[in-house]
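Regression test case RT-17, inverse folding.

Input:
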């Protein structure tokens, strides 16, 4: 994604028209290996834009303790003081508190929507989900996102109740793991022509959705905090830090076994027939350990295939070769 960002700076062209809009400051987080330098370079290209980064490397959620949580909260407190100096404005804690409520609600709703895809036939397909999850990547803190996901949840529930399928010829159910080759989302339509629906991915489910294990042992949407339970800045920052650290997609930065276990859970609960792993050269953080994931899934008796690509560079994806690999995989699943 940063290739587009840097290129726009160098060309002084904005994708939506006109010249590149120079920001007042950059705010980012170091959540995986390449993020640390993205905005440092952008700042340098733009002549020294003030930049602040949160170091999010506190380990997996099951190891989160008070010291690690304090490490994140202290950085955010420092960042607020930094923003006040850079902008000359007083920080509004009431807006922060409302944004935290909205984000927790929106990410819980997205997990609930993904849970509805456990139904057979699946009401949503992965390609369509990419048009829907993006609101949660860019504006999950806003009321409009909560409202949209509420309406979407109700619509998807209606599709489940009336057995309206994303793919009317659904015969096989598969999942993928990380970002797709964005320039070739048509690959999902190719699978649909073969009676196969990708019911989502660890990426679509877990980058935006926040989950918890329910009483019956299954994955479901995490219960968001009730309005009125957050009363000040410190509580708001602690809530959003702890909530964000539970994001499933961040867990396997630290161990491929964590990703394997999550994939196995999805296979079982979403009634998946096979897994497609993307050797995605465009995202080291989500692709590291993928060979171990493949071995772990095979050891569990789960059919698995892999294909190569790069979410950010279409030159590194061979669509015809991938279609051939998909055909072979579907034959393994029972297609003729």
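Golden output:
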């Amino acid at each position: 994604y940063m290739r587009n960002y840097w290129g726009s700076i160098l060309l002084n062209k904005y994708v939506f028209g006109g010249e590149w809009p120079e920001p007042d400051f950059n705010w980012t987080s170091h959540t995986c290996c390449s993020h640390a330098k993205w905005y440092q370079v952008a700042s340098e290209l733009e002549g020294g834009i003030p930049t602040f980064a949160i170091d999010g490397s506190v380990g997996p959620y099951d190891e989160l303790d008070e010291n690690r949580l304090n490490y994140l909260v202290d950085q955010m407190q420092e960042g607020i003081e930094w923003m006040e100096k850079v902008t000359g404005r007083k920080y509004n804690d009431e807006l922060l508190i409302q944004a935290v409520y909205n984000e927790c609600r929106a990410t819980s709703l997205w997990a609930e929507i993904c849970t509805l895809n456990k139904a057979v036939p699946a009401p949503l397909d992965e390609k369509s989900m990419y048009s829907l999850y993006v609101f949660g990547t860019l504006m999950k803190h806003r009321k409009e996102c909560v409202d949209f996901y509420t309406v979407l949840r109700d619509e998807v529930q209606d599709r489940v109740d009336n057995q309206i399928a994303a793919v009317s010829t659904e015969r096989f159910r598969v999942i993928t793991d990380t970002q797709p080759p964005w320039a070739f989302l048509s690959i999902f339509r190719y699978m649909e022509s073969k009676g196969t629906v990708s019911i989502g991915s660890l990426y679509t489910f877990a980058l935006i959705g926040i989950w918890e294990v329910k009483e019956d042992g299954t994955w479901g949407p995490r219960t968001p905090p009730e309005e009125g339970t957050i009363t000040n800045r410190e509580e708001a920052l602690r809530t959003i830090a702890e909530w964000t650290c539970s994001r499933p997609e961040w867990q396997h930065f630290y161990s491929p076994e964590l990703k394997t276990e999550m994939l196995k859970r999805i296979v079982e609960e979403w009634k998946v027939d096979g897994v497609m792993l993307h050797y995605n050269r465009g995202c080291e953080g989500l692709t590291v350990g993928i060979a171990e994931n493949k071995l772990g899934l095979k050891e569990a008796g789960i059919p698995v295939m892999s294909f190569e690509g790069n979410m950010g560079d279409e030159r590194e994806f061979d669509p015809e070769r991938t279609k051939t690999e998909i055909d072979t995989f579907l034959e393994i699943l029972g297609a003729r």
